[in-house]
Amino acid sequence: MTETREDSRPRVPPNQVVTQKFPVMTAGTPATAGIEEWTLALDGDVESPVTLDWAAFNSLPQQDFTADIHCVTRWSKLDTRWRGVSLQVLADLVRPKTGSDYVQARADGNYTANLRLRDLVSDKAFVATGFDGKPLTLDHGGPARLVVPDLYFWKSAKWLRGLHFSPFDYKGYWEKLGYHNYGDPWLEQRYRG
Ligand SMILES: Nc1nc2c(c(=O)[nH]1)N[C@H]1C(S)=C(S)[C@@H](COP(=O)(O)O)O[C@H]1N2
Ligand SMILES: [Mo]
After folding, report:
1. What distance in angstroms lies between residue 101's CA and the mean position of ligand 1's atoms?
2. Which residues is 38 bridged to in the sheet?
3. Does the predicted model carry a pTM greater than 0.85?
4. Where are the alpha helices (DSSP H) in the chain?
5. Which residues pair with 46 in a beta bridge?
6. Averaged over 81-93, what is the pLDDT?
7. For a substitution probing ligand 1, which of 19, 151, 156, 173 has the most ligand atoms within 8 Å of its CB?
8. Which residues pair with 85 in a beta bridge?
9. Longest CA pairwise span in the chain (Å)
10. CA distance 75 to 102
């Protein structure tokens, strides 16, 4: 683990501090579903909306991926290891209609986050069910959470229950409270305005 890349570009975005710990950041205490009741709704402006139960979700191709994650409260964690289904696989399944450029992630506990579809596809984001070789624990969003490493980690909704594809960019929980609409850590897009 190194904090500088081979070409000497910084590994850590501006004004972030690397931690070895894995802090738990949760607004409220959501009641979440066990795998018996859990479903993931892929809906909105798509050709083939579908609601996947745990078995259907797990029959999709899974990938291992390693990523650095960056919380807006200024901690970063490097080389986190996950397992999950790529957003590309989920988008291919439902086929967003032309102009359906936004995705609202919907989670238990009324948590939402808004994202651009182009920031999610091409293996830039995953719905993860595994962390560090084990099932994702409840505090970190189990049974399934979004992981979008290129954006501040508030965009990575824990206890994910739906992805709503739309031509409209509905603001999410933190975005409504004044956090930046896109949240690129390299551009320090922490707050709006
Ligand atoms: N459902 C839900 N997802 C959430 C949050 C939350 O409060 N509820 N917090 C976000 C924030 S601000 C961060 S930094 C990460 C923290 O994930 P962790 O608790 O696994 O570190 O989850 C994000 N996803
Ligand atoms: Mo965060």
Report:
1. 24
2. none
3. yes
4. 54-58, 87-94, 173-176
5. 96
6. 98
7. 156
8. 127
9. 48
10. 27
